[in-house]
């Protein structure tokens, strides 16, 4: 199965994946359930790299392993992946906002205001 390069690049950009992760996830979505060897063959990713790519995708919520001999992998539905990413972005944004709000209470922030309010004239080049 040849995976469309444009789709690979779009998935990389939209989901924050590297090239191997995108190829493996797309191959697994197309196959449904597969062993690492089958995924390597379908995706074109070297078999030796397929295992660590699958581990990375599992950690990030794109796949789950189905225990057995051999271990098979199942792709998580794209809509579930999108919802998880949205929750992560929201959580990270809220954490960042809280951090920035706390900055206003620090001595460093007061120093920044002092610098801004001092209105030091920039050096003029001749």
> What is the straight-line distance between the termini?
65 Å
Tally the helices.
6
Helix content: 55-70%
CATH class of the largest domain: Mainly Alpha
| CATH architectural type of the largest domain | Orthogonal Bundle
Category by helix and strand content? mainly alpha
The CATH topology of the largest domain is given as: Arc Repressor Mutant, subunit A
- Share of β-strand residues: 5-15%
Uncertain residue segments: none
Structure notes:
- There is one protein chain.
- The chain folds into two domains: 5-76, Arc Repressor Mutant, subunit A; 79-118.
- It is mainly alpha-helical and 126 residues long.
- It has helices at residues 5-15, 19-31, 36-43, 47-59, 78-103, 107-118; strands at residues 33-35, 63-66, 72-75.
- Strands 1-3-2 form a three-stranded antiparallel beta sheet.
- The protein is 66% helix and 9% strand.
- Strand 2 and strand 3 (72-75) form a beta hairpin.
- The N and C termini lie far apart (65 Å).
- The mean pLDDT is 91.
- It is elongated and about 70 Å long.
Give keywords.
single chain; 126 residues; mainly alpha; Arc Repressor Mutant, subunit A; 2 domains; three-stranded antiparallel sheet; 6 helices; 3 strands; elongated
């Amino acid at each position: 199965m040849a995976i469309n390069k444009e789709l690979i690049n779009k998935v990389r950009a939209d989901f924050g994946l590297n090239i191997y992760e995108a190829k493996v996830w797309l191959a697994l979505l197309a196959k449904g359930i597969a062993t690492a060897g089958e995924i390597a063959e379908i995706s074109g990713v070297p078999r030796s790299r397929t295992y660590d790519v699958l581990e990375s995708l599992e950690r990030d919520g794109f796949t789950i392993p189905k225990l057995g001999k051999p271990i098979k992998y199942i792709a998580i539905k794209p809509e579930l992946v999108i919802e998880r990413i949205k929750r992560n972005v929201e959580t990270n944004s809220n954490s960042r906002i809280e951090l920035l709000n706390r900055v206003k209470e620090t001595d460093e922030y007061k120093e920044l205001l002092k610098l801004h309010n001092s209105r030091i004239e920039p050096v003029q080049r001749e």
